[in-house]
Design a protein that fits this description.
Largest sheet: 8 strands, parallel, barrel
Distance between the termini: 41 Å
Number of helices: 10
Order of helices and strands: HEHEEHHHEHEHEHEHEHE
CATH topology: TIM Barrel
Oligomer: single chain
Strand order of the largest sheet: 1-2-4-5-6-7-8-9
CATH architecture: Alpha-Beta Barrel
Number of strands: 9
Strand content: 15-25%
Number of domains: 1
CATH superfamily: Phosphatidylinositol (PI) phosphodiesterase
Length: about 260
C-alpha cells in the first residue's frame, strides 16, 4: 500500500507545476530554537534532568522539550527511553522494560543528575510562564490534560497519530505538529494532506521531521509539492539542515546551536 502512496505522489509531482525553482530559501532569523531533551549541560545531551531544565532557562531558551515516559507503576517522568536508561545504569538485561518509580528513584539518573517527575515539570512551567513546554513520546490529550492542566496554551506537542493530532487541536493546544514517526503517517498524509478537500477532518499542515526523513523520496516529494511548517530534529550544525526544509522551518530542536 505504501508503494501506491508513493506512486500517487510521484504522479502529482509530474503533473504539477512545481514552484520549487522559485522558492526563496529561508534563513534562521525567524526560527525558534528548542532545547532538546532539556538541553545540554556539562557537555552532555539528552539528560532530561532538572539541572538541564534550569540551565536551559538560564541560557534564555523560550522552548524546552522533555521526553515523557511512564514507570511500571504509572508515574510520569522525563526519560528518553528505558532501554537506553537500563544500559546506562548497568541493567541492560532488562531491555526496554520500565522500572518502578521506587527503583528509578533509588538508582537515580546517570552522571548524578536529578530525575524530573511530572510534578517537577508542571511546577517549573507554572513558575516560568514565558517558556513553552515541548513534549515528546506521549501525545494522548487525556494524559497531557491530566498531568499538565492549564498548560495547553503554552505547549508544543508532537502528535504520534492522526487521532491525537485532531483531538489536540480540538482541545486548544497551542501548537500541534504531526510526527514523521507516527505509524499512520502514510495514510494520514494521503487523506489529509494530498486530498484534504475531499476528506473531512483536520488538515495536516505542520510536520515534525528527523533529518533522516529526507532520505526518502516520499518525504522529499511532499515537501516539494506542499507548504508545511516544519519542526526539525536534532540539529547541531547549520550544515545538517536540508535545503528543501528551509522555507518552512518553524522550530529547530538543538543541543548546541542556541
Amino acid at each position: 500500500m505504501k508503494r501506491l502512496y508513493i506512486a500517487v505522489v510521484s504522479a502529482l509531482l509530474l503533473l504539477s507545476c512545481s514552484d520549487k525553482g522559485n522558492r526563496v530559501v529561508g534563513t534562521l532569523s525567524d526560527v525558534a530554537f528548542i532545547a532538546h531533551a532539556g538541553g545540554s549541560i556539562g557537555g552532555l545531551a539528552m539528560t532530561n534532568s532538572m539541572e538541564a531544565l534550569y540551565a536551559a532557562r538560564d541560557k534564555g531558551y523560550k522552548y524546552i522539550e522533555l521526553d515523557l515516559q511512564f514507570t511500571s507503576d504509572s508515574v510520569l517522568v522525563a526519560m528518553h527511553d528505558w532501554a537506553e536508561y537500563n544500559m546506562a545504569v548497568g541493567q541492560e538485561e532488562r531491555g526496554d522494560s520500565a522500572p518502578s518509580f521506587a527503583e528509578l528513584s533509588s538508582r537515580g539518573l546517570p552522571n548524578g543528575f536529578t530525575l524530573l517527575t511530572h510534578s517537577d515539570i508542571y511546577d517549573f512551567f507554572i513558575a516560568n510562564d514565558s517558556i513553552c513546554f515541548v513534549t515528546d513520546k506521549i501525545s494522548n490529550p487525556d494524559i497531557l490534560d491530566n498531568f499538565f492542566p492549564g498548560l495547553e496554551s503554552r505547549m508544543v506537542v508532537e502528535a504520534f497519530s492522526y487521532k491525537d493530532y485532531v483531538a489536540l487541536h480540538e482541545r486548544g493546544y497551542r501548537y500541534v505538529t504531526y510526527s514523521c514517526m507516527a505509524e499512520d503517517v502514510a495514510t494520514a498524509s494521503l487523506k489529509h494532506i494530498l486530498f484534504s478537500a475531499l476528506f473531512p477532518g483536520q488538515r495536516i499542515d505542520k510536520l515534525a521531521l528527523h533529518t533522516s526523513a529526507f532520505d526518502y523520496i516520499y518525504m522529499k516529494l511532499l515537501l516539494t509539492l506542499f507548504d508545511f511548517e516544519i519542526s526539525l530534529f536534532t540539529i547541531n550544525s547549520i550544515d545538517e539542515i536540508p535545503e528543501v526544509a528551509f522555507a518552512g522551518l518553524k522550530y529547530i530542536y538543538t543541543d548546541a546551536l542556541y
